[in-house]
Amino acid sequence: MLNGRYSTRFLISCIEAMQNFRQKYTACSNKFLLLQAVLA
Q1: DSSP code, position 40
Q2: At 1, is the secondary structure helix, strand, or coil?
Q3: Mean pLDDT, 10 residues at a time, over the chain (40 residues)?
Q4: Residue 29 C-alpha from the chain's centroid
Q5: Secondary structure (DSSP) of the chain
Q6: Cα–Cα distance for residue pair 13/33, rounded to 1 Å
Q7: Which residues contact 10 (CB under 8 A, 6 or more apart)?
Q8: Which superkingdom is the protein from (predicted)?
Q9: CA 26 to CA 31: how far, in whole Å?
Q10: What is the pTM of this model?
Q11: What is residue 22's predicted lDDT score, i.e. its pLDDT?
């Protein structure tokens, strides 16, 4: 069984990774939409 401190730190790192991924995904999808608008 994981101790509380380790599992809390793991959860925080998961949340940070998700937020970082979402920022990258949003920037990438915005560029893709911009590219579609230019090519259309």
Answers
A1: -
A2: coil
A3: 79 95 94 90
A4: 12
A5: ---HHHHHHHHHHHHHHHHHHHHHHHHHHHHHHHHHHHH-
A6: 30
A7: 2
A8: Bacteria
A9: 9
A10: 0.60
A11: 94
